[in-house]
Amino acid sequence: MQRSKKIVLLSHCILNANSKIIGYSQYPGVFKEIVDIIDRLDLGMIQLPCPEILACGMKRWGKTKDQYDTKHYREMCRDILRPVVEQIYAYDKVGYEIVGVIGVDGSPSCGVNKTCLGKSQYGSISNFKTIEEIADSIIEADDPGIFMEEFMQLLTDEGFQLPFIGINEEDVFDSIESVENFLVSHTEAQ
């Protein structure tokens, strides 16, 4: 059987919405529209591990990048990404092409171009009188999340330059066209 020898890497929750914090997914399981594009372009997929589940489990609260920005979390991200980089190396060694990486903008871990920061998210949650006060304490920043920062650095350290794109976490369906354009352009450029 003919292989395309082209692969895309995806943030864990794109293929498994169940990994997201409770109440924060716009699709029930798989982001089917993105998977359909990948399938139509004959690309293979590698699902990145979810660092937030490994660090905090499924009963976690939503956190911000600055809350995850600890030496321990960064080391954990590097540790779970090393096998992925080894896979990329193995594929590259035999002529496969890694088309790119799809992350989730807005995520404190998997954001590519956008992440969330807390203006005053520390101390007891009881310091806030309402959920709205907590939400108002979160700001968007034009930075990658911790996991993607560490992934980009590991790739650079190993001599790989991969293109990244982030799905807009606030309205994932608004990102379908831009992800398709990204994949088509990077598939044709290879």
Structure description:
- The protein is an alpha/beta fold and 190 residues long.
- It has one domain (6-189): Rossmann fold (3-Layer(aba) Sandwich).
- It has helices at 12-15, 32-40, 51-56, 65-68, 71-93, 131-136, 146-157, 176-189; strands at 6-10, 44-47, 97-105, 115-118, 138-141, 164-168.
- The strands form two sheets. It has a four-stranded parallel beta sheet, with helices on both faces. Strands 4-5 form a two-stranded antiparallel sheet.
- The longest helix is centred in the middle third of the chain and has 23 residues, at 71-93.
- It is globular and about 60 Å long.
- 31% of the residues are buried.
The N- and C-terminal alpha carbons lie at a distance of 21 Å
Work out the helicity level.
40-55%
Question: Could you give the order of strands across the largest sheet?
Answer: 2-1-3-6
Average per-residue pLDDT, rounded, comes to: 89
Poorly predicted parts: none
What is this structure's SSE topology?
Elements (H helix, E strand, L loop, with lengths): L5 E5 L1 H4 L16 H9 L3 E4 L3 H6 L8 H4 L2 H23 L3 E9 L9 E4 L12 H6 L1 E4 L4 H12 L6 E5 L7 H14 L1
Parallel strand pairs: 1-2, 1-3, 3-6
Antiparallel strand pairs: 4-5
Helix pairs in contact: 2-8, 5-7
